[in-house]
Amino acid sequence: MKLHEIINSVLNDEELQLEKLAPYKNSLYTYFKDYFCYEPVIMVTFVCNALQGCKIVSSNEFNEAICDYLEDYDCSNEDSKNFSEYETICANSIMLADF
Length: 99
Description:
Number of helices: 5
Mean pLDDT: 91
Shape: globular
Largest sheet: 4 strands, antiparallel
Oligomer: single chain
Number of strands: 4
Structural class: alpha+beta
Distance between the termini: 18 Å
Strand content: 15-25%
Strand order of the largest sheet: 1-3-2-4
């Protein structure tokens, strides 16, 4: 996957494989740091044996992006149906600068 394809996928709110981002991590950080005006975050949406799905979101919209992904707008409530998935996403997500 080429850099412009990855950028278009992120801008279209599509999920990507984390391994596809690795060769372009510095370029992606530079582009999305300017695009978001905040630190970009790699929101890891699922983890399997050798595969992680992710999206790149702005750090100031991280919580809202998780809630939109889970279609659960009460993510702060521990009794919410998706709270365990919410915690998993928070635990596995990393700042793009630290990737």
